[in-house]
Design goal:
18 strands; alpha+beta; five-stranded antiparallel sheet
Length: 730
């Protein structure tokens, strides 16, 4: 027999952003807790509003599963005395397991004869074991901030201890907990936490139905609350917001500006959503679009409305937690608050237009960029030089635009809009682009300035222009380099200076825009300005640390794109020249190239010819790894006279000739099949000669030949990293 389980935590209004993570924690904890309790269950559902976090588990079994535990006791020689009577050790073991001595049996083990017993654990009723688990689940929920709250003065701590915690004053939650509901079927569960005893009484909407609401059964939960003006299920609530917003926007002659994040925030701000439209004076539309949208969403959580051509209308949509009563008064209040925000923005905008970005450049000297690493003016100078260096390698035609944009891109940090308007701080760069455009800078320069913070995160758009991409790379490379020089490295999950975010942005731009860049050269160039004559800093050590950092960022990027781990490791461990010729460098140096090589290898894994080749490569690699001798720089071909040696040498020459143009063109999918031609010659070589010959010169020649074979593969992949059937992953 099974019954549904309901557990609701009633609270004062929770922050909207705290609700989804709390619901995820409840779902995980409930699943793990019921499994530990040996209770069968059906689906787990969670519901959340500002005033409640709820868990509904379908078809929870009425009793725990019975389980038999095989318990091993002491050695037989310790369990029985010389006459065969049970010793105190055996009696203690049996008492601990709750069994009679007669239930014990002798068992043979590799360590000798021991005693053992089968302990039968009869399942307990679910109603007996669930309360403590639910109470612990509630107390264990974590939030960005937690609080304690005053408990009724008329109760003593001893009184309150009866309601759950060892000391209820130790209980903490995001907001004060005001009620608990715990039902198993139609029966209440005696859950006690936060100085409260759970029952079946919930609460309706704070204003529309503020009284108690009795929940008869878990299956009635949603319908009962809906009668009390609470839509506890987030999906119907969201659908209601979206449909009402669509109709309201159409009533204003436009459409809702898409904003999924804002929909979710509003979804968790209300229990009974009512969407209404408001308006503002059209003259505020002279402000940049981003300023208006930010004023609407950041503090007021309003939606912007736009025409079909994408231009904004002087209207907004708000979501009220209630019904349509007195909606005109609510609309007027919201319009008044918004006008105050827009007036502030208008003042910032008009004040900022009094100076051009160029006129602000020298004032950057008064702003410290990073402690010990100079001012924003110095950073601007570095960005000019680094941006030009990058442009010569990635987008030559964009170099003049990059240099100009680099000089001006940080000047908006001195503006009123960014410096004083805290809600507009997220528009840094974007506002710089607007100021540059109004000052007469070219559209290309303005766009590059506006784009140079992109991407701000994993879901953010990339720079759309070449100049914007180059400047974004320069800014992020300089940020990473400066942080490493200043010793502000990310550690564990801590990254207060956003170093990983900047590094991930660099890798994303290079990979997704298919731009090829040597990250080690970029690290040298970006750190160079920090190592002047008056700074005794070990640049080589910093660059080495940066190498480890960039390898980690590239590795994470390949993981996110679904590359198998061993194909990833094989590509990153390669020794490949970026341009197909010259001195080889680590395989992670060029993120886009690393992704292409890793994907080519992963795609070729299904070919039945691949695994034997990988095994052969591992054998070659193992032989060379075990050799401690210094090999000659060049192969002494004259020493190789055996037929199998000449065959392998000839095959190596043919393979080199076949793949050389393919390396230059990065046609990796065709390189691996070409390298397969070496499989038979390598096999024959191992069968026909002893690599570690007694003759030293011959031995070195053969090892040098195998080195050349290995190096040909290593230009793209270290196949020793590939896991073949029968091997264990690292």
């Amino acid at each position: 027999m099974s019954r549904d389980l309901l557990f609701e935590i009633g609270v004062e209004e929770l922050p909207a952003l705290a609700i989804p993570p709390a619901l995820e924690q409840m779902e995980r904890a409930a699943g793990a807790g019921l499994e530990a309790l040996r209770l069968e269950r059906g689906a787990i559902e969670t519901y959340g509003t500002p005033r409640r976090l709820a868990l509904l588990v379908r078809a929870v079994s009425d009793r725990q599963r019975d389980v038999d535990e095989e318990a091993m006791g002491p050695a037989a020689r310790v369990a029985y005395d010389a006459e065969g009577n049970p010793t105190r050790a055996l009696l203690g073991f049996c008492a601990g397991k709750g069994v009679d001595v007669s239930a014990v049996r002798r068992v043979a083990t590799p360590k000798g004869e021991y005693v053992a017993v089968t302990v039968h654990h009869a399942g307990k009723p679910a109603a007996d074991v669930l309360p403590d688990v639910l109470a612990d689940l509630a107390r264990a929920l974590t939030f960005p901030t937690r609080m304690r709250w005053w408990l009724p003065a008329r109760l003593t701590v001893d009184d309150l201890r009866r309601f759950g915690a060892a000391d209820p004053r130790d209980d903490q939650f995001a907001r004060p907990v005001r009620w608990l509901v715990a039902l198993l079927g139609s029966d209440t569960l005696p859950v006690r936490a936060f100085g409260l005893a759970a029952g079946r009484t919930s609460r309706g909407h704070r204003f529309l139905a503020p009284g108690p609401v009795t929940i008869a059964r878990p299956a009635d939960y949603l319908a009962t609350l809906e009668k009390a003006f609470v839509l506890a299920d987030r999906m119907p609530r969201r659908a209601s917001i979206e449909s009402q917003a669509r109709r309201a926007a159409e009533g204003e002659g436009g459409r809702v500006v898409p904003d999924d994040e804002l929909i979710e925030i509003n979804d968790y701000l209300v229990e009974w959503p009512t969407v209404f439209a408001g308006r503002f004076d059209p003259h505020y539309l002279d402000l940049p679009r981003e300023v208006i949208v930010t004023a609407l969403r950041e503090h007021q959580r309003f939606f912007a409305v736009e025409r079909e051509d994408g231009t904004l209308l002087p209207a907004f949509l708000a979501v009220r937690n209630g019904d349509a009563r007195n909606l005109d008064g609510v609309r007027k209040g919201n319009e008044d608050v918004l006008i105050a925000r827009l007036e502030d923005a208008k003042f910032y905008w008009e004040t900022d237009l009094g100076k051009t970005p160029e006129q602000r450049v020298e004032a950057l000297r008064g702003v410290v960029w990073m402690e010990g690493l100079g001012s924003l003016r110095e950073k601007a100078a570095r960005l000019v030089a680094l941006g030009d260096w990058l442009a010569q390698r990635l987008a030559t035609d964009a170099a003049p635009t990059v240099r100009r944009a680099a000089l001006l891109c940080k000047t908006d940090l001195l503006s009123e809009m960014i410096g004083s308007g805290k809600e507009y701080a997220s528009l840094e760069g974007v506002m710089g682009g607007h100021y540059a455009r109004r000052a007469g800078e070219s559209a290309a320069v303005a766009d590059a300035i506006a784009e140079h913070y992109r991407p701000r995160g994993p879901a953010d758009a990339l720079p759309a222009s070449d100049a914007g991409a180059v400047l974004a790379l320069a800014d992020k490379l300089d940020h990473v380099a400066g942080a490493f020089v200043a010793g502000k490295l990310p550690s564990g999950s801590e990254d207060p200076y956003g170093v990983r975010r900047a590094g991930n942005g660099v890798v994303r731009i290079l990979i997704e825009q298919e731009r090829h860049l040597d990250l080690r050269d970029a690290s040298m160039e970006s750190t160079r300005p920090f190592f002047s004559a008056d700074r005794e800093l070990p640049q080589a050590e910093i660059v080495k640390k940066l190498g480890d950092f960039w390898r980690g960022r590239v590795e994470a990027a390949l993981d996110e794109r679904g590359v198998p781990y061993d194909a990833r490791d094989a590509a990153l461990a390669a020794r490949v020249p970026l341009d197909g010729v010259g001195k080889a460098r680590p395989g992670w140096i060029d993120p886009r190239d690393a992704l292409e090589r890793a994907r080519s290898l992963a795609e070729f894994r299904a070919d039945p010819r691949f695994e034997p080749l990988a095994i052969l490569f591992k054998r070659v690699s193992n032989i060379l790894t075990k050799s401690s001798e210094s090999l000659p720089d060049a192969l002494d071909r004259g020493r190789l006279t055996e037929g199998v040696e000449r065959t392998l040498l000839s095959g190596l020459d043919l393979a080199r000739g076949a793949v050389e143009p393919l390396w230059r063109e990065r046609r990796y999918a065709r390189i691996i099949p070409a390298l397969l031609e070496l499989e038979d010659p390598i096999h024959a070589f191992f069968e026909g000669v002893l690599v570690n010959a007694e003759d030293r010169d011959l031995r070195l020649a053969r090892l040098r030949l195998l080195t050349d074979v290995r190096d040909l593969f290593l230009r793209g992949w270290d196949l020793s990293k590939v896991v073949v059937e029968g091997e264990k992953s690292a």
